[in-house]
């Protein structure tokens, strides 16, 4: 990507150590914090409605992940999101499992409607459910029928652009092929590893990285999200290459964090498999 | 075990990718999710009462673990459990720390009374407390006096069978020697590693695996639970064999997940140390 | 340190397996549990107000960490802390992010005022905020201006002693140089690794270890806290030495737990870099 290089997006994260406020699920929250530290950002978690405004005030951006939403954390998401809006901070929405329950569908829809969301990051089933275009879901996993393939890439990109236009957000749809789009442009990213689907949290971690990249690159939101998605995918590839015969998803999780930790701007620029779609 | 082979139970999990809904403690929830992914299942966590019925509806079974219970998650457990009952989905109850507090004792008892629990998985102190036969407890660990030994194996199996008869559930009591029983039959399983007691979550992970095995083997509940318990123990042995001189419980945790990830049906069949008790 | 040797403090933990009740954040709670197991203690987590009195009753001490406080866990902290006070159990307070929000500042202050806190463990920004002497904070990280250095060591120690005198607690301020002080004496500890700041939870884990050491060494509180802080730092050094070229913070986290697991009394005595300050 030129003129804005992907490596700049990563280097800006490492140079500025953005503070990222995350209201996220308790399943993968530790990995989210360590992923942010690995990439050079600083994580803070706070969901209590009485706490989140102050915390958001000292941070640069907000991640909202509904993976284990409850009444209290939902209230915290709206309170934090409103404060982020007042301050012009980017908000990344990860609608985990939207479509799998009425509460998740309503909550994700309301967050999108009432807050100033900068980035939507999910799998295709989740993003379709959020867009109201599909009711199919297999819990927190993508439905096979929804997967982005070479065959439906053009149509998928058109969907992403249209949803980006409707929501005024960057839309990042991740899977075997990732799509990152705003209303005008769409990119396909072919980094990644199938093993990322065999650990919990690869998507959650990425959403937090998306926030860090958005905070550190205020003048290049779309490009920053391409960099975050490609960087996560590239880290997955590095982690997979490191797997030995006795290793499984326990080791892969560790290697993935290690790869994020060691990811440099030049390696990202060289390894990113990014194609701008017509 | 014949005619139903243990390997079938595992192969059925890997072939069907059961969706497992877990309401579990926040201490070990990440390990639980990764253990389910390692064994070939797909985890979903949701505790919010307004969310759990929908989530249970799309899943095949339910794990209830009271390790860090609170007012809200308790309500979620009952709501999810009632829905599981309506749908005929298996419920695995892990009564963590029952006997250590009045709330845990009452909650576990009520869950057992009011829900259709298919499997009870705990250490002997917990299962005794749940059965009302012992008040002794050492927090979340087994009391030394309660441990299953070769000397009390026959009496322990009789207790397990009687409690299974009373509750109409399979009872899985894990420790140095594991016992899995229904009202008719009891098995001793001698797989495992002492290091499993030096990490948090070995029991919690197993309970989630028990749910996955129950979902994937609807016609062989008892045998499926023997397979889950033996499989977890065998993974512990594989993990222990991999330990190097600098390794500790951090590495053991990773190796345990790796071993679950790589566990095959034939290896389980060959390595399971299962004895049917008279 | 003589006559009480640091190694005794550690050996007492391993010999007595203290049960430690922790009300802590959900970000690092798994690492906290595994760190306690690594050092030879036994962790229990419980935050529900209706559960905590019973749980504290069977434990030896209490860790209070406000990292992801909410209305319910705050109520649990006071209830558990009151019970600990009735029983004479040590309480370790980790005021994560105090100063970063009004709720955190008020909660940490109230816990300190209303409970019988034995140990306060935080970074210098947090401890200053708790002492009311500074409002500066950078989320959960220390402000660069607040860091303990060789240049301000004497003044830092004087501050720690004065705050210890005011609160009747041992004050443990951790950073590149750690300070542990009561009203009379102060120690500088120069163990540790910069990588401890690149994982989440090093401080949280240490606070839990502080509780275990306090429980196991009732007649040597100050010395026990020096041992806990030096032990954690030494484990960080061992972990750092183990880092290979592909390793990052994922592996470091694992190595840190491993190093705690393998830490022996003699190694602690030999490796501790402890200086009593005038």
TrEMBL record, chains A, B, C:
<keyword id="KW-0547">Nucleotide-binding</keyword>
<comment type="function">
    <text>Catalyzes the phosphorylation of the hydroxyl group of 4-methyl-5-beta-hydroxyethylthiazole (THZ).</text>
</comment>
<feature type="binding site">
    <location>
        <position position="174"/>
    </location>
    <ligand>
        <name>ATP</name>
    </ligand>
</feature>
<keyword id="KW-0808">Transferase</keyword>
<keyword id="KW-0784">Thiamine biosynthesis</keyword>
<dbReference type="InterPro" id="IPR000417">
    <property type="entry name" value="Hyethyz_kinase"/>
</dbReference>
<protein>
    <recommendedName>
        <fullName>Hydroxyethylthiazole kinase</fullName>
        <ecNumber>2.7.1.50</ecNumber>
    </recommendedName>
</protein>
<dbReference type="GO" id="GO:0005524">
    <property type="term" value="F:ATP binding"/>
</dbReference>
<feature type="binding site">
    <location>
        <position position="201"/>
    </location>
    <ligand>
        <name>substrate</name>
    </ligand>
</feature>
<dbReference type="GO" id="GO:0009228">
    <property type="term" value="P:thiamine biosynthetic process"/>
</dbReference>
<keyword id="KW-0460">Magnesium</keyword>
<keyword id="KW-0067">ATP-binding</keyword>
<feature type="binding site">
    <location>
        <position position="121"/>
    </location>
    <ligand>
        <name>ATP</name>
    </ligand>
</feature>
<dbReference type="InterPro" id="IPR029056">
    <property type="entry name" value="Ribokinase-like"/>
</dbReference>
<dbReference type="GO" id="GO:0000287">
    <property type="term" value="F:magnesium ion binding"/>
</dbReference>
<comment type="similarity">
    <text>Belongs to the Thz kinase family.</text>
</comment>
<dbReference type="GO" id="GO:0009229">
    <property type="term" value="P:thiamine diphosphate biosynthetic process"/>
</dbReference>
<feature type="binding site">
    <location>
        <position position="45"/>
    </location>
    <ligand>
        <name>substrate</name>
    </ligand>
</feature>
<dbReference type="GO" id="GO:0004417">
    <property type="term" value="F:hydroxyethylthiazole kinase activity"/>
</dbReference>
<keyword id="KW-0418">Kinase</keyword>
<dbReference type="Pfam" id="PF02110">
    <property type="entry name" value="HK"/>
</dbReference>
<keyword id="KW-0479">Metal-binding</keyword>
<comment type="pathway">
    <text>Cofactor biosynthesis; thiamine diphosphate biosynthesis; 4-methyl-5-(2-phosphoethyl)-thiazole from 5-(2-hydroxyethyl)-4-methylthiazole: step 1/1.</text>
</comment>
